[in-house]
């Protein structure tokens, strides 16, 4: 699979919503509980500082995405935040790593100085391994910081990296 990452366009809305909603519906990674519709999804993806679309260069299939935006405002506006989603059935093929690396470069190009993840769920071993591999610093553990879909609370581990 030849993965290219490019900027989101309105033509990507349906594919991006499908992938995003897979993660939301699983209820083990994103804080959102509500799924996106065509209308809310178009506004959501267009409203980010950058939405990156991972596409298979051979087939044109959208296989993943990320959103990048400020983590805060004003004196903390130089810190960005991001979320990543890879299409079910294609996870484990290093698409997520390509998304994170692209996001780090894009964040720096947009003038952000730090990329921070507020809520990496402690049971998300793949994400934790990837962030360690890429040089992110874990900031400790917040006990019970994430409500899982099944109703129990899982610890979260915020991370950051200097861009």
Brief digest:
The chain is α+β, with helices and mostly antiparallel strands and 163 residues long.
What can you see in these coordinates?
There is one protein chain. The chain is of the alpha+beta class. The chain has a domain at 3-116: Aminopeptidase (3-Layer(aba) Sandwich), CATH 3.40.630. 29% of the residues lie in helices and 30% in strands. The protein is built from four helices and nine strands. The protein has helices spanning 13-26, 38-46, 95-109, 125-133; strands spanning 3-7, 50-56, 62-70, 79-86, 114-117, 137-138, 142-147, 153-156, 159-162. The strands form two sheets. The protein has a seven-stranded mixed β-sheet with strand order 1-2-3-4-5-9-6. Strands 7-8 form a two-stranded antiparallel ribbon. A hairpin with a 5-residue loop joins β7 (142-147) and β8 (153-156). The longest helix has 15 residues, at 95-109.
Helix content: 25-40%
CATH topology of one domain: Aminopeptidase
Percent of residues in beta strands: 25-35%
What's the Cα radius of gyration? 15 Å
Q: What is the name of the CATH class of one domain?
A: Alpha Beta
Head-to-tail CA distance between termini: 28 Å
- In the CATH hierarchy, what is the architecture of one domain at level 2? 3-Layer(aba) Sandwich
User: What is the H/E string?
Assistant: EHHEEEHEHEEEE
**Average predicted local confidence, pLDDT:** 97
The helix tally amounts to 4
Instruction: Characterize the main sheet.
Output: 7 strands, mixed
**Overall spatial form:** globular
Extended strand count = 9
The CATH superfamily name of one domain is: Gcn5-related N-acetyltransferase (GNAT)
Task: For the largest sheet, list the strands in their spatial order.
Answer: 1-2-3-4-5-9-6
Secondary structure class reads: alpha+beta
Organism: Luoshenia tenuis
GO molecular function, one term: acyltransferase activity, transferring groups other than amino-acyl groups
Protein name: N-acetyltransferase
Pfam family, one: Acetyltransf_1
């Amino acid at each position: 699979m030849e993965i290219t990452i490019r900027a989101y366009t309105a033509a990507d809305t349906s594919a991006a919503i499908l992938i995003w909603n897979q993660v939301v519906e699983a209820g083990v990674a994103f804080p959102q509980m509500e799924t996106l519709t065509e209308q809310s999804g178009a506004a959501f993806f267009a409203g980010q500082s950058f939405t990156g679309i991972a596409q298979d260069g051979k087939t044109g299939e959208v296989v993943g995405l990320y959103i990048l935006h400020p983590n805060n405002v004003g004196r903390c506006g130089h810190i960005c935040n991001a979320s990543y989603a890879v299409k079910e059935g294609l996870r484990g093929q290093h698409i997520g790593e390509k998304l994170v690396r692209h996001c780090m470069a894009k964040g720096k190009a947009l003038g952000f100085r730090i990329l921070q993840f507020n809520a990496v769920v402690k049971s998300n071993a793949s994400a934790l391994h990837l962030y360690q591999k890429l040089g992110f610093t874990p900031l400790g553990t917040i006990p019970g910081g994430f409500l899982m879909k099944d109703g129990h609370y899982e610890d979260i581990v915020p991370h950051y990296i200097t861009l």
